Amino acid sequence: MVLQEFGIEVATINPGPFLTGFNERGFDTWTSWGDDPSDRLFDYSKLAFPRATFDPEPVYATMTAVAAGEIDTYRNLEPKAMLEETKHLIEAPWNKKVKDGLGTRPASLQKSYEMKPETPVAKVTPQYPKIKSRALTRGAHGVLNAVVDFRRVVWRVRTKQRLSYITRLISGRCTLAQQRELLVTARWLALLLRCLHYDLGEREQAGAARQAAITPGSKPDTVRSLLGPANSPPGCP
Question: Which residues form the domain of 116?
Answer without folding.
Answer: 1-132
